[in-house]
């Protein structure tokens, strides 16, 4: 039996003035957290909108737990929870009321809605705020409500489109823990982000997307180790040139050489190094 939650095959999306997606293909395993990492305008949100059934691809196929997503639209929407980039909660209603409305829209039995709300408020540590109006919450708490609202109807796949955009760094890091806890209860997650450290911390696997196409897929650890363990940054007059080394001794030898004429620094390789290296090769 296949353990593939989502499979995209050669997805193209063409608008009148731009080709937004250029043959995108990838697979996501059940219970995996898979990240699409790329700059703004790379095509991340277009992929989310296609999977969510909000826009049709120009060509290509997408399978959700083995079923053709576009041939089974009603069933597909029941299996997917969507967390958009921007907060679209009813700010004049309470946390509980927003969750209740979502449950009613999905025709969930009322007794189950109440039970589900209690479960999700516990998971999100929002029990004390269930009677609070959305407009009274911080940005971080609003985003928690967005996520548990998307989980109300017990979807198997959760789509997170730039879920920490606009959050302060310390709040973003607390939010990462919340997302990993959602994965731990068995939810498959597709995350889009342009924050390199977010993908490195959260994702089981990462797909680099650039200019409408996926240019590489791997685990964060494999991406980094394939490039090198240490990065030597050499500050030239017009740019910073980075060199990568598996061995720290070799990196330190080069540091001594370059430090005679330039400011240099030695550090560990991160996912941003890998991404920029791929982009440089694909320009």
Automatic annotation (TrEMBL):
Keyword ATP-binding: yes
Alphabetically ordered keywords of this record: ATP-binding, Nodulation, Nucleotide-binding, Transport
Molecular function terms from GO: ATP binding; ATP hydrolysis activity
InterPro entries associated with the record: AAA+_ATPase, ABC_transporter-like_ATP-bd, ABC_transporter_ATP-binding, P-loop_NTPase
Signal peptide: none
Domain of life of the source: Bacteria
Domain called ABC transporter: residue spans: 6-236
Family: Belongs to the ABC transporter superfamily.
Name the UniProt record assigns to this protein: ABC transporter ATP-binding protein
């Amino acid at each position: 039996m296949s353990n593939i939650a989502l499979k995209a095959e050669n997805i193209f999306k063409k608008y009148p003035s731009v080709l937004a997606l250029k043959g995108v293909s990838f697979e996501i395993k059940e219970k995996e957290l898979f990240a699409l990492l790329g700059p703004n305008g790379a095509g991340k949100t277009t992929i989310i909108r296609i999977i969510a059934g909000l826009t049709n691809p120009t060509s290509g196929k997408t399978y959700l737990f083995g079923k053709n997503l576009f041939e089974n639209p009603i069933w597909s929407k029941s299996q997917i929870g969507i967390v958009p980039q921007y907060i679209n909660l009813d700010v004049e209603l309470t946390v509980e009321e927003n969750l209740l409305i979502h449950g009613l829209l999905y025709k969930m039995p009322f007794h189950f809605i109440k039970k589900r709300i209690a479960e999700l408020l516990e998971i999100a540590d929002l029990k004390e705020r269930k009677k609070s109006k959305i407009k009274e919450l911080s940005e971080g708490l609003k985003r928690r409500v967005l996520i548990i609202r998307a989980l109300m109807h017990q979807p198997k796949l959760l789509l997170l489109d730039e879920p920490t955009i606009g959050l302060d760094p310390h709040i973003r890091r607390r939010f990462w823990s919340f997302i990993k806890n959602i994965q731990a209860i068995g939810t498959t997650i597709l995350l889009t982000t342009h924050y390199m450290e977010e993908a490195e911390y959260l994702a089981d696997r990462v797909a680099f997307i650039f200019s409408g196409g996926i240019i590489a897929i791997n685990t964060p650890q494999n991406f980094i180790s394939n490039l090198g363990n240490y990065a030597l940054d050499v500050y030239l007059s017009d740019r910073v040139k980075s060199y990568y080394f598996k061995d720290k001794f070799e990196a330190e030898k080069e540091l001594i050489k370059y430090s005679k004429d330039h400011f240099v620094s030695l550090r560990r390789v991160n996912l941003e190094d890998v991404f920029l290296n791929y982009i440089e090769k694909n320009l």
